[in-house]
Amino acid sequence: MRILVIDDHRLFISGLRFLLSDLHADLEIAEIPSVEAIDEASAADLDMVLLDLKLSGLSGIPALDLVRTRLEGVPIVALSSEENGSVIRECIEHGAVGFVPKSSSPEVLIHALRLILAGGVYLPELVLRTPSEGTARIDPAEDPRARSLAALSDRQRQALMLAVKGKSNKRIARELGIAEGTVKLHLSAAYRSLGVANRIEAVFAVAELGLVEPAAS
Fold first, then answer.
1. Closest Cα partner for 7 from 40, 42, 45?
2. Cα 200 to Cα 12: distance, rounded to the nearest angstrom
3. Which of 160, 168, 199, 216 is least surrounded by Cβ atoms within 10 Å, i.e. has the fewest?
4. Is 143 exposed, middle or buried, given 0-12, 13-18 or 19+ CB atoms closer than 10 A?
């Protein structure tokens, strides 16, 4: 497994290296200080990118957009000391599959990365819907959205999970070997099942339900 860390704070990277040693027995961590430094060597055989949103050069959403363009198809996780709901939503809208606040505990970080590596989406609790006071949280297994999604075809489910991981309809079509118009039909069916109107709403619904694609064997 190979993870690229894009961060210009050496102390943070040192701590991250220590924490990530629990993630996988055969883990290689590459590190670069900026998105402009992405090259053939750093981009090779990546399983994930951890991107600090506050870099000294290009930063924030423009940095995220550049990483997504240069490392097409690689899951991108945004890391930030900022815990603003609108910033988190914007990151997901621009293709990140997770947002982990730097204030998170080591256990939360490892859980988030394992979920994403398994094909899921991680969002901090602060941007997910919370039940009204005195109302019990709904078990995802009992959520009607989960039951509706279970009725989707395999292709519809696959298209949905690729979409919430930030992949374009064109790339989904290539990966599934189907027409781009068919991808749109599959996503429309999945969105109706979730009760959402678009891709960004689907990401939040998937995160709330804790849905995870089976890891590849």
1. 42
2. 30
3. 216
4. middle
With contact defined as beta carbons under 8 Å apart, do 202 and 191 qualify? Answer: yes
**Amino acid in the structure at residue 115:** L
Q: Which helix (H) or strand (E) holds 2?
A: strand 2-6
Angle between helices 10-20 and 106-117 (to 10 degrees): 70
In whole angstroms, how far apart are CA 51 and each of 37, 66, 98, 100, 178?
13, 11, 10, 10, 32
Ranges assigned E (strand) in 128-193:
none
Of 48, 196, 216, nearest in space to 207 by CA: 196
pLDDT in tens, the chain (217 residues): 999 999 998 888 888 888 888 888 888 999 999 999 999 988 899 999 999 999 988 999 999 999 999 998 899 999 988 878 888 888 988 889 889 998 888 888 888 898 888 877 788 876 664 443 333 444 555 667 777 777 889 999 899 888 877 778 888 999 999 999 999 999 999 999 888 888 878 887 877 776 544 333 3
CA atoms within a 13 Å half-sphere pointing along the CA-CB vector of 165: 24
Q: How far apart are CA 133 and CA 130, in angstroms?
A: 9
Tokens standing for residue 179: 């027409």
